[in-house]
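Field: COMPLEX_INPUT
Field: COMPONENT_COUNT = two
Field: RESIDUE_TOTAL = 221
Field: MODE = joint
Values follow.
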Amino acid sequence: DAGVTQSPTHLIKTRGQQVTLRCSPKSGHDTVSWYQQALGQGPQFIFQYYEEEERQRGNFPDRFSGHQFPNYSSELNVNALLLGDSALYLCASSSDRTQYFGPGTRLTVL
Amino acid sequence: GENVEQHPSTLSVQEGDSAVIKCTYSDSASNYFPWYKQELGKGPQLIIDIRSNVGEKKDQRIAVTLNKTAKHFSLHITETQPEDSAVYFCAASGGSYIPTFGRGTSLIVHP
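Field: COMPLEX_OUTPUT
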């Protein structure tokens, strides 16, 4: 049984560009959450998707948006990239309150 | 919102010693407390969790204790091994089911 998978593993973009990150949840999980983890910090909650809708959102600007597909996979989109968006982006899936994380996508903004 | 404080930020022990990491939380409505281990270049891995109706939980060399009155919880690792070296995160969540994480503890186990 595959766990949570994310793609790509690494990404380099320049300021002002747009990026799309992808996540496939653990089998049997219907809820996907996205987190941003800056170096030396704990994960910060961006938003959560359930039944293809954004259910909850953390304190992130509208430049951060997402989508969930009928097969429960999800995308995170970030527009107008800033240097400060450089971080590890984590996807977590769940079917109850226990969240299981993927390996993350390392985004570097130059 | 919830605020989780975690100490220490770095913990260095000799192989075979015990390690203790402590966390406090602010929201009395929080009732679920997971602990995650994150190795370099990987995502956080759930190692143990505890719910508010339980005071202590053990899984082999790992144990977690919860004091709801004082709003603090701790992770105890006994007989540490070099492969225990990693960053450990505590978290707390309530009705929203969204965990708030501490800033992490870097555990270094010296052979």
